[in-house]
Amino acid sequence: MKQVILGTAGHIDHGKTSLIKALSGIDTDRLKEEKLRGITIELGFAHMDLPGGERLGIVDVPGHERFVKHMVAGATGIDLVALVIAADEGVMPQTREHMEICELLRVKKGLVVLTKTDLVDDPDWLEMVQEDVIDFLKDTFLEGSEIIRVSAATGEGLEELKQALAKLVHQVEPRSSEGPFRLPVDRVFSMRGFGTVVTGTSAAGKLHIGDPVMVYPKQYKTKVRGLQVHSEEVQEIYAGQRTAINLQAVERAVIQRGDVVATPGALVPTRMIDVRMELLSSSPRPLKNRAKIRFHTGTAEHLATAVLLDREELVPGEQTFAQVRLDQPVTALRGDRFVLRSYSPVQTIGGGTVLHPLPRKHKGHGKLEAAVALDALLRGDEDDIILWHVLDAAWFGLAVDELQVRTNIPGGHLEKALQRFASQKKVIFFDRENQRFLHPKVLENIQHSVLETLASYHQLYPLKTGMPKEELAAQLPHPLEVKLYNFVLRQLADQDLIATEMEWVRLQTHKIDLSRDEEGIRQKIEQAYRQSGLQPPFFKDVAASLSGTPRQHQDVLEWMVSLGTLTKVKEDIYFLTAVIQELQQRLVAFLKEHGEMSTPQFKDMTQASRKYTIPLLEYFDAQRITIRIGDMRRLRESRSG
Ligand SMILES: Nc1nc2c(ncn2[C@@H]2O[C@H](COP(=O)(O)OP(=O)(O)OP(=O)(O)O)[C@@H](O)[C@H]2O)c(=O)[nH]1
Ligand SMILES: [Mg+2]
Q1: Is the minimum distance from the CB of 151 to ligand 1 under 6 angstroms?
Q2: Assuming Cys at both sites, which of 48, 155, 450, 555 could form a disulfide with 24, CB separation 3.0 to 4.6 Å?
Q3: 238 φ, ψ to 5°?
């Protein structure tokens, strides 16, 4: 059955609550204080069946100017509005303000109820008021809507109103129940034997009894214990229904109006939102950059600062891009409408659309750039918006769920689009297991950084064969996730632009050319180690006899090690690799014949002092040639066979 929500709107005392009671039989003013003062304070809820059989959910709002914030919360999620205007008073301040709020929230359809007609005897007066109202509706979404004359006191016009509502209900487009569930909470109470119940109009998705949900922005995880639509128990609810959700094991005190109940992971609390913002032409003064404002989204109201991105002030009647910086975390999705009210005096001054719920902070020159970039989000189609966010994620890359939170496009659509983009190379998947991807421009940019970093490293250390992988990663302008880093290195290696070995990386073009001086140093070093065989000098002693600078000595030494000419056995102790290899052969032969070897036996074999034999034995252990058992060495298992 189609479910449509009607909201009231209009000036205080114009007869909204009486009208709803006359229509539905339900008195929505439940509070003692409301009865006492004869005004509505809190939102009221009712429902009625229309002549066509459809059920209409009703949200009755207060008209008092002090409770406009409740009205904004109530108007969130309504499909139709009944703008109630008392025939004896005509258009009044909150008639205007409520209309502006409905326009800002993009309520699409509705009608006008000219009520209390029994109080007007003069037909000319009635005509005049009606003319006024027609004038007032010009250029609004209610222009040309039906204006129905009603008296809640006598019942006159009620049937006509019901027929008109039934007609309108058919024109309401059903909401999509695709994607994650989301419901801005407008009421919380606890019921004996049930626990905590929240109510609201579900904005999107479906929800079933037993489903896990999360209460945002505090992120309490809980479960759906029971569901009601218009006081009837149901198993499942859909987008656009007036719903009461009984939550499992949550204290009433931890939830409040403004919170959002949603599918876990569907939202991310944020203190910054990039928006398209408009200032009403009725706003008394321009909105200054960094002005304090009241930001209403869903059923929440928060203090915030409006950072204008491309101007110092927003003139009434104009629009701009802005970053809303909130005093408290909220949740919002792309496309959500919001209302702005001035800090003091409190008054509705504007509103707009959420473009990016998780932006970075825009400052300085970045503000203008951000405004230009946001224009693409405002005008782009779904494909543009997806690719925009993939690019915006830059070196972090994205996964589908993160993209869903940013774009408010259901996961199924996203997955299809991403497959198409992947085959067109418009997105690059770098982590298949976690389905993470990035923009090809970003990949190019990372590759460029890697090549540049390597080039400057080679210039700085011309004799080093390559750059340690970790050092390369650390010197990139932004940190990279390990999987992405390895992906980039693999790609560059596949393109023959770099060569990688276990722990280091170099440009494919990097060759080591020794200068004449360095070649002289190299020869001297090699000679020194060749002559000394198994009893080499400390390198510092070799270096003392060399020409050139200590830095050159060290570079040439490291280069010889990386080439494999020399082998480092311990700090400052190097051997000619050929000497070590010859010794290793003798050692292995001995162990094969005798099974084990003691340290003195090794000393005999090498004819060297303990200064060398102990490091050498430890070196062969570390190389997994030998294994130490007590004071003896044996061949490692894998080698003995
Ligand atoms: N004679 C007459 N009185 C009406 C009619 N409708 C409402 N009233 C009276 O007008 C007063 C205000 O009516 P409400 O329905 O409370 O007005 P409201 O718009 O809900 O007021 P708020 O919610 O406080 O903004 C009450 O005393 C009603 O009895 C009507 O059609 N005819
Ligand atoms: Mg009322």
Answers
A1: yes
A2: 48
A3: -125, 170
